[in-house]
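ok so I'm stuck.
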Amino acid sequence: MNCCITILGRRRQGKSTLALALAAARSNSILVLDVNAQYRSIPSSPLDEEYIHEAMADPEGCLLVFRPDSAQITEAWHTLAQALWEWEDYALILDEASEFQSPAWRDEWLDRFLRQAPDSVSIIMTTHRVVDVAKLSRALSSDLFLFQTRQESDLQLLTSEFPGLRADIVPTLPAYHVLHHWVDHGGIGKNNLWDKPGEWYVNIGDSARASTAGVRGSSAVRAEFSGITA
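replied:
not stuck anymore, here's the structure
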């Protein structure tokens, strides 16, 4: 099964930055569909199939950010999805993944990626609330990252769908602290509190840091995350 990560939290909590750190822990090739310009300090790449294939063929990896016009988000996603489908070993970030799904609907290409993408592909989705994510997307998530929320209905839904989740600590999480939940090979829900933001957080509005080692994921993130999801 491919790695499917869902990150939930309000604005300005660090979802997009965490997504980048997790992507870097999984692969040297990172592609971001940045529909709300959260990664604006990183230059936008042309959404061109030949350009994407050339970048993906680079043995040193790549960091490509695609910033589609608001009226062409679905078209842009389908173009990117088709260009990537033949490739393996990369991390794909869908920032604001609610653009591609709802509680009762999921885009056909997103459905295909979540169900059929190779094991070496990591799909990372960010959004604000659990109800923004289709039920089947939640069921297929290998890892869940939760920033602070006090929305009782969201906490109840998360608890019912992720047995063993420590939802009780989520309402009191400090800024940039995040709860990581996953299911081990025995089917047991596990939790780990990421309480050292310095290990993953950088200001992605700072072009100097966002384009260098800061977004490549610290050794601590790589060690924990690669071990858990291997």
